[in-house]
Structures are given as structure tokens and as C-alpha cells.
């Protein structure tokens, strides 16, 4: 549908570029390093600047050097920028340069990493402590509350590394059966993680590790490579599980690594460059804004990675198309007498056209974002969606005489969902299983199970059972030589025709297409 509007978008971008009436804001962006996470964020920053039309961006990357980043910030300030966007390499060492910019009256947006100073205009990031804590709880559930865990930390002195470590350790302490065999100091890079893990293995040759937690996906993969090389010398030795944080889309991103079973789990660390640009423009134009903004994030595991990957790749395709359109518009500008175009169209026509195009595109992106958010929240965030008054009504209506399930704290919900998944997995092949059977396995009544599952996920127990069967069927079609009928019966469908119908409704293709 978006292609129908390509011509209009090109024309709109041309007209915005031609107009000399809007104020040109010069924004400096100081990145602490250069990696795929920041490449994605920089692309989103540029995309956000396209929409505003009155923004010029100046990028600088410090490549993990404190001294280089201080010099770059001072240089951007001397170049006369109107606002500074900065991700500090370390908490204390970069603060003086940021303070100098702030003291000169330049608004400062600190993103992703904190400083040791309060001299900033706004801060925007995801909750790194929460990420580490949720990963700690997930890891605890994956290894059954006991075992040996090896942690590869991020860059020492950087706030994300500190907060992810603290959240992880606080969660792990609740499981006395888990031993943290080591917390190795990394620097976010895969190569460093590989070296320090290899060195640790050499010093602890008899150590058995059940799971490795990396402060980001690259450190987890570096540790995986080191342990895999070591295990190659011991035939039959099983590799531990590996978990990381970032959950990026794309060929080398964490979502693909989870899909390919190289990582057991990752955690989406949102980039949201477009949101940062919107915040910057609001500050520069004197509009209301929040001083502290925490962005949403989500856990990615093998069960939901394929769904998240499809949604993420669709968003990337849309962004790439828009970037191509902007490049075409720039090339077209060189061939036109821009002043004649501006005189040809009145200001009111330009304004109306821009409003229509921007509203349409934002609506399109919002639909995609909402669809992805619903899927992720339903499958993995597992946070109750009903209001307090609905809980009261549920209790009033429960006339079964049994104690209602009211444990909706995050830890209780996590335990409940983990147990329910185990029950579903155990009953997957049973075509005659009913809600009563699932409830009995959970030691609940049918009404209790239905209400609890519905309130947490928005879906019924049978709907989740069918989803689990279709996911398992997809895996069997990809990895085995079983026929479609064999797969259908193996996952609990009583008729291959009904299995084919359900499969097409969910995946948009026939089971046979997967094998092709």
C-alpha cells in the first residue's frame, strides 16, 4: 500500500528541502562506540530528521575511547551546534565535557548511558537494571534454580554494564542453588569476551558451566566461541546455554541468533532514534517534554523469536524504503529549478500535503508497532492487563467454592506461566486434551485456569495450546522429513485438513510451502 504514495512522499520531501522559511537546527550526536546497535540507531536518527525537515545532524563516534569522545564533544560545541545528543562511554570521565556544553546554554540529551552529573536537559533509555533482573529470573527458571553460571560483564564504569550486572545478581541471589562461577570484566566486544573466557577456562579446567550470561549478545557469542573451542577437545561434552541482551534484528542480530539456537534468549534493547529526534526538536522549539523517559523492552526466547523477527524485519524494510525515497528526492533536487517549484505551489497546499502524508505514514508505522507489541506482551511480558475493578468483579463472581488465583505479582506470574507451558508441552500430542485436563494438571478448577490464563495473556488455554502445536509443527516441517499428515498427528491435530487450515491462518502459507 505504501508504494501508492511514493510519488507524493518524494514531492513532499522535495518541497520541504526547498523551503527556506523553517529554522535549521544543528544537532550533534556523540556516540561512545561504533557497532550494529548504534548503526541502527543512527539510521533512525536520520529517518527522524527527514520527517522534521529542519534538522541537520553531525555524527561523531569515539570507538570506546574516553579521550576521543571528550575531544569530539568539545569540537561539536565549537562548531556551533544547537543541541547535543550523547551516549557517554563511562559514567565519570565524560561528564566534564557534557557539563561544559550545558554551561554554554546548549541543551543536552543523554541517552542509553548515564553520567555522574545532573547537568543535562533530558535522559532517555531503557531500564538496564530491569533487563538484568528479568534475565536473571529467566536464567533461574531455565536451569531449574541450581547450577553454575558464568557472567561476562560490559565495559567497566559504563552505567548499562553496572546496572545489568546489579539486576542480574539481585535476581540470582534469590536462588541459593545457583553459583556464579565468575563475573568476567568485558568491554561489550565479542573478541574481548572470547579472550577473557578462554583465559578463565584455562585456569578452571575442571569447572562445569550450565549457562553463560553476556551483558550483550556479542559478549555472549564471544564466550560461546571460546567454550565451543574448548569443548571440541572433549568429544561428547555438552555446551552450556547462552543468554545476552540487545535483541537486534538483521543477519547478525540477537533475534536471528535466538532463531538459529546459538543463543537461548536475548532481550530487546530499543534504539528508537526517531523518538530521540522528536524529543530534541520539542526541546529546541520550546514544546513540553519529559526530563526522564524510559523506553519499553521485551524478552526474546526461542518460542517467540520467529514472530518478533518477522515484525522487526518488516519495520526495517519500511524504513529502508523511506530512506531510498529520500535519496531519490535528493537526486531529483539537482535536476530541478527548486525556486520555480516553490513558487508554483502555495504554502497552504504544501502544508496540507505534508500533513496528509505524515499522518498516513505514522498511522501505518503505528499499526505495525501495535501488532508487534501485542504479540510480545501476550507471549512474554505476561503482565496482567485487567484493572483493579475487574479483579474485584472476578472475585465476586467466583462461586465455585475454591480459592481464587490472585497472585499477580511478576514473580508469581512468571512461575505460573512457566508451569503452564510445561503442562502444554506435556499434552501437545494428546488430541483429546481438554481445558479440564489442563486445569487438573495445574491443580486448578476449569474456571480458575481459564480466568488466570485469559487475564495474563488475553487468550484462552485452548488457543495457547493450538498456538504451541502450530509452533511445534513449523519446527518439525523445517527440521524433519515427516509428511504433513505425520506432523499433524504428531502435534495433536485429529485431521490433516484442519491442521492445514489452521496453519495457513497463522503463517499465511501452506505447510507444504515450508518444506519447499
Explain what you see:
The protein has helices at residues 6-18, 36-52, 66-78, 95-103, 128-142, 159-172, 190-203, 217-231, 254-259, 273-284, 305-333, 338-344, 347-381, 388-397, 410-427, 435-441, 446-457, 461-479, 484-490, 496-507, 511-515; strands spanning 25-31, 55-61, 83-86, 108-111, 122-126, 147-153, 178-185, 211-214, 241-243, 265-268, 292-295, 298-301. With 516 residues, it is α/β, with parallel strands linked by helices. The protein has 3 domains: 2-120 and 271-378, Rossmann fold; 128-268, Response regulator (Rossmann fold); 388-515, Arc Repressor Mutant, subunit A (Orthogonal Bundle). The chain has a 6-stranded parallel beta sheet, sandwiched between helices. Strands 7-6-8-9 form a 4-stranded parallel beta sheet, with helices on both faces. α6 (159-172) links the parallel β6 (147-153) and β7 (178-185).
Notable features of this structure?
disordered N terminus, 21 helices, Rossmann fold, four-stranded parallel β-sheet, Arc Repressor Mutant, subunit A, six-stranded parallel β-sheet, alpha/beta, 516 residues
Average pLDDT? 82
CATH topology of the largest domain: Rossmann fold
**What is the alpha-carbon Rg in Å?**
26 Å
Count of helices? 21
The order of strands across the largest sheet is 2-1-3-4-5-11
For the record, what is the CATH homologous superfamily label of the largest domain?
A: Response regulator
Extended strand count: 12
What's the CATH class label of the largest domain?
Alpha Beta
Number of domains: 3
The CATH architecture assignment of the largest domain turns out to be: 3-Layer(aba) Sandwich
How far apart lie the N and C ends?
28 Å
Helix content: 55-70%
Estimated share of beta-strand residues: 5-15%
Main pleated sheet: 6 strands, parallel
Question: Based on CA inertia axes, which overall geometry fits?
Answer: globular
Amino acid at each position: 500500500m505504501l508504494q501508492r504514495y511514493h510519488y507524493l512522499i518524494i514531492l513532499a520531501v522535495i518541497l520541504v528541502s526547498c523551503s527556506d522559511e523553517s529554522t535549521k537546527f544543528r544537532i550533534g550526536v556523540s556516540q561512545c562506540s561504533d557497532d550494529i546497535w548504534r548503526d541502527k540507531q543512527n539510521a533512525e536518527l536520520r529517518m527522524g530528521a527527514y520527517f522534521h525537515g529542519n534538522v541537520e545532524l553531525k555524527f561523531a563516534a569515539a570507538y570506546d575511547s574516553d579521550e576521543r569522545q571528550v575531544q569530539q564533544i568539545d569540537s561539536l560545541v565549537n562548531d556551533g551546534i544547537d543541541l547535543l545528543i550523547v551516549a557517554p562511554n563511562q559514567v565519570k570521565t565524560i561528564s566534564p565535557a557534557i557539563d561544559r556544553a550545558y554551561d554554554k546554554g546548549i541543551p543536552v540529551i543523554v541517552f542509553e548511558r548515564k553520567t555522574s552529573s545532573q547537568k543535562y536537559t533530558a535522559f532517555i533509555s531503557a531500564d538496564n537494571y530491569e533487563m538484568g533482573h528479568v534475565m536473571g529470573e529467566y536464567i533461574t527458571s531455565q536451569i531449574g534454580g541450581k547450577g553454575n553460571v558464568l557472567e561476562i560483564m560490559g565495559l567497566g564504569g559504563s552505567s548499562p554494564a553496572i546496572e545489568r550486572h546489579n539486576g542480574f545478581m539481585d535476581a540470582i541471589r534469590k536462588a541459593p542453588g545457583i553459583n556464579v562461577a565468575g563475573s568476567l570484566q568485558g568491554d561489550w566486544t565479542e573478541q574481548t569476551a572470547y579472550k577473557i573466557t578462554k583465559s578463565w577456562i584455562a585456569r578452571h579446567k575442571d569447572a562445569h558451566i550450565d549457562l553463560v550470561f553476556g551483558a550483550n549478545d556479542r559478549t555472549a557469542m564471544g564466550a560461546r566461541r571460546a567454550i565451543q573451542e574448548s569443548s571440541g577437545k572433549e568429544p561428547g561434552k555438552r555446551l552450556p546455554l547462552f543468554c545476552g541482551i540487545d535483541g537486534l534484528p538483521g543477519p547478525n542480530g540477537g533475534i536471528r541468533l535466538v532463531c538459529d539456537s546459538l543463543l537461548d534468549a536475548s532481550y530487546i534493547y530499543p534504539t528508537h532514534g526517531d523518538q530521540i529526534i522528536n524529543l530534541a526538536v520539542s526541546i529546541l522549539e520550546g514544546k513540553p517534554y519529559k526530563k526522564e523517559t524510559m523506553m519499553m523492552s521485551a524478552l526474546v526466547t526461542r518460542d517467540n523469536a520467529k514472530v518478533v523477527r518477522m515484525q522487526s524485519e518488516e519495520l526495517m524494510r519500511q524504513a529502508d524504503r523511506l530512506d531510498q525515497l529520500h535519496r531519490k528526492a535528493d537526486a531529483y533536487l539537482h535536476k530541478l529549478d527548486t525556486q520555480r517549484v516553490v513558487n508554483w505551489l502555495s504554502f497552504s497546499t504544501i502544508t496540507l500535503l505534508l500533513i496528509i502524508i505524515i499522518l498516513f505514514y505514522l498511522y501505518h508505522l503505528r499499526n505495525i508497532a501495535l501488532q508487534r507489541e501485542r504479540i510480545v506482551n501476550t507471549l512474554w511480558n505476561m503482565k496482567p492487563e485487567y484493572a483493579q475493578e475487574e479483579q474485584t468483579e472476578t472475585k465476586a463472581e467466583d462461586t465455585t467454592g475454591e480459592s481464587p488465583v490472585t497472585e499477580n505479582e511478576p514473580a508469581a506470574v512468571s512461575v505460573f506461566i512457566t508451569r503452564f507451558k510445561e503442562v502444554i508441552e506435556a499434552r501437545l500430542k494428546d488430541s483429546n486434551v481438554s481445558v479440564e485436563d489442563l486445569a487438573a494438571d495445574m491443580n486448578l478448577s476449569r474456571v480458575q485456569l481459564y480466568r488466570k490464563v485469559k487475564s495474563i495473556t488475553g487468550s484462552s488455554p485452548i488457543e495457547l495450546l493450538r498456538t504451541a502445536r502450530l509452533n511445534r509443527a513449523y519446527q518439525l516441517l523445517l527440521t524433519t522429513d515427516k509428511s504433513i499428515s505425520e506432523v499433524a498427528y504428531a502435534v495433536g491435530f485429529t485431521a490433516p485438513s484442519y491442521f492445514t487450515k489452521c496453519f495457513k491462518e497463522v503463517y499465511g502459507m501452506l505447510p507444504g510451502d515450508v518444506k519447499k
